[in-house]
Amino acid sequence: MLSLILPTFNEAKNLPELLPKLEEVLKGIPHEIIIVDDDSPDETWRIAQEIGHDIDDIHVIRRVGRRGLSSAVIEGFLSAKGEVLAVMDADGQHDMSVLPRIYESVMRKNGMVIGSRYIEGGSVGEWDERRHLMSRVATSLALKVCRVKVKDPMSGFFAIRRELFHSTAKQLNPKGFKILLDLLVCVPKETLVEEIPFTFSTRLHGESKLSRRVQIEFLEYLYDVTVGRYIPLTFVKYCIVGAFGVVVHVTAYLAFSALIREGGDLTVMGFGLAVIGATEVAIVFNFLLNNAWTFAHARLKGLSAFIGFLKFNGACLFGALANYAVSSYLFTLAWPELSAVIIGAFTGVVWNYTMSKMFAWKD
Ligand code: GDD
Ligand code: MN
Fold first, then answer.
1. What is the CATH number of the domain that holds 56?
2. Is the same domain home to 98 and 41?
3. Is the Cβ atom of 38 under 6 angstroms away from ligand 1?
């Protein structure tokens, strides 16, 4: 049986054209069609339910409060019954007449079969120069991380054998658009993969959802599967925010101490006050930036942001103490002053990161 997943977001105009043709193409093949819609504002899910009402092999999953092509496809695959799991754009861009060949090829021997734009006989059709360039760059970057090399690792049109998908399901990364690439990163090296050429057409209606955000997610994904295996991206972002935080801290210290000094000498108490004030300014700065950027996937809002902020303060307090304890201990061991300070500061950053992840921004 073939389970064909159609991920949709605002494709209400395309489905009524697409589904009857699809049923025609798939007539000779035992199949089910699973539409996974992310609660589209144009109510694609409703249109799909209406069309599928009298057709047994059409199923609709309406996901509420979630977005993402990869995660929609993964969810569709997980709910599918077929031995062959396939995915296709729901906008008419993928040549559905290739589906029977894709299905037979997986049934015969292959682990995966890709509808390919970059092999002999295939083409990207009418694309502007910008999209061409973007696709070429993305494809060559993608090939560096794939375990199985193919010509079109960024295609959105492919099929995979059921057991192969289920054996990799837990390793998949649901961010963004690159579900095929992610599978090519996770499947065993010896997996047989065939590419079948097709020409990428223009959309029937509506527009592409491949946004700037999706492109950034692609770059983050490349990081995640390379260096990110050892150093998590959130940690790198946390350190970048921390580095800016130091600049904010010093600037705030200079401002506070100038206010307190007022022409005279800075007393020990005045110095302490300026440092405390500057520390709090830096904490507020770090919290806002971490919440908006580093931990954007778990961003806190409203009351929970306020509570998270209090927890973040608590966590930073211990980071400062850890920093102080480590650096002064190294200092008493007669380590060079600067290296004691740097190692101390690093301890503080690692400590703060760990505490923030444990208490403020739980995944
Ligand atoms: N459920 C769901 N959620 N579906 C989505 C989402 C989402 O967040 N974003 C997009 N889709 C659906 C669209 O409705 C469409 O059916 C399909 O996924 C592909 O999205 P398009 O917006 O049409 O993408 P594209 O045509 O620009 O990109 C195509 O080519 C890329 C490579 O050049 C796709 O085939 C990509 O998968 C492919 O990587
Ligand atoms: Mn498309």
1. 3.90.550.10
2. yes
3. yes
- Ion ligand 2 neighbours (CB, 5 A) are 89, 91, 93
Query: Is the distance from the beta carbon of residue 210 to the nearest atom of ligand 1 less than 6 Å?
Result: yes
- For residue 291, give the DSSP letter: I
* Contact indicator for 31, 63 with CB cutoff of 8 Å: no
Residue-wise pLDDT tens digits, 198-225: 999 999 999 999 889 899 999 999 999 9
The alpha carbon of 215 is separated from its chain's Cα centroid by a whole number of angstroms, namely: 10
**Of 6, 8, 66, 95, which is best to mutate to test ligand 1, by the most ligand atoms within 8 angstroms of its C-beta?**
8
CA dist 299 and 140 (Å) reads 33
Residues 267 and 325 in one domain: yes
Range of the domain at 316: 233-360
**Best probe residue, ligand 1, of 151, 209, 211, 213 (max atoms within 8 Å of C-beta):** 209
Pocket of ligand 1 contains residue 237 by CB under 6 Å: no
Ligand 1: residue whose CA is nearest its atom 37:
156
Same domain, 208 and 237: no
First to last CA, the chain: 37
Strand pairing class (112-116; 158-161) = antiparallel
Its pTM surpasses 0.85: no
User: 67-89, pLDDT tens digit by residue?
Assistant: 999 999 999 999 999 999 999 99
Calculate ∠ Cα 342-343-345, nearest 5°: 65
CA of 258 to the centre of ligand 1 (A): 56
